[in-house]
Amino acid sequence: MWKAFSSKPGWMLVIVLAVVVSASQRAQAAGAGAAAGPDPQKLSLTVQKAVNFLATSQDQDGSFTKPAGTGITALVTTALLRSGRSTHDPVVAKALSCLQGYVQKDGGIYTPGTTNQNYETCVAIQCLVEANRDGRYKKQIAAAEKFLKRIQWGEEQGKDKSDRFYGGAGYGHSKRPDLSNTSFLVDALKSCGRGPEDEAMKKALVFVSRCQNLETEYNTTPFPAKNPDGGFYYTCAGEGGSAAGKTPEGGLRSYASMTYSGLKSMLYAGVGPNDPRVKAAVAWAAKHYDLNNNPGMAGKGLYYYYHVFAKALDAAGNDIFIDAQGQKHDWRKELYQAIAERQKPDGSWVNGEDRWMEGDANLVTGYALLALSYCHPKAHAK
What we know:
The structure is a single chain. This protein has 2 domains: 1-21 and 37-56 and 212-377, no CATH class; 62-196, no CATH class. It is built from 14 helices and 4 strands. The protein has helices at residues 11-19, 23-31, 40-56, 71-82, 90-100, 117-131, 138-151, 179-191, 199-210, 256-268, 276-287, 302-316, 331-340, 361-372, and strands at residues 169-170, 177-178, 321-322, 328-329. The strands form 2 sheets. A two-stranded antiparallel ribbon has the order 1-2. The protein has a two-stranded antiparallel sheet with strand order 3-4.
């Protein structure tokens, strides 16, 4: 379905253009108003409708979609904080109080008995960091970070660098690692202020690099040779796996939500724009630029995709994204339009493709708000 770019010299121009918009291009685009982003008033109204919806969908104990564990509560609360609600807001305060009840003795923040210890703790850390304006959650954040590092696959778990599990995170202790969970781990580490020199970040980068369809010194797994398109798939561990399935040659298909997760994670881990891994990921994204679908997965995981799309392009520092046809995209404006046109009258969002819980209005509205937080014109969100 997707052909390798490596044999086509013309891709090099696309790659260079897509990775970083030069200073002269930025100035030219700004002068022409090409990267204006969405209309601030319209963006504000869209966000406010969503915030109002979430305020009415909170459970009595402060949670959101409690049967799903703490993850949605933490994600939604982070979205509310990033959308202008303060820690003193009744909805936010109630949700934060609820999360406090899930702080475990081992430092993790998760539902007892869950298999989602890594995911739940990662999103809880990001929530508490967002709420930590007065330092009240400093000790809990530090303990949760230590917990995440203990369950990350590495030497302490009997895995050396040659093992495909190495550096990854999965659903709880002793579970197969995957790029989604590892991406959440990288996000949590970054929110704690960790950068390229952090050992856990270095280990995560090893795993992330092995989930890319690109043969390099960083990835000697057998998967990219069968589909060397530069994108990312779900996991390199074990026999490997991709939610998008396999190519006729037996390769693991790349798809957008994992490609942007991989790109964002590499950038957070300090990989530069001229690194072959970043160039290849951006080239894949340029070839498959689309905000109506999650490329490679159609409508499945659309709002997760919107969120990582926004984070990755924001991390890259590009106001304008240039696709493989040379078309310039004011991605903040286009992302806002794609999200806004899908908003329900009550302010929520729901994905008709109910995979990965995207039939849940709280989760999807949280994803949408987080994506929108990166859409403020010229204001790179953190």
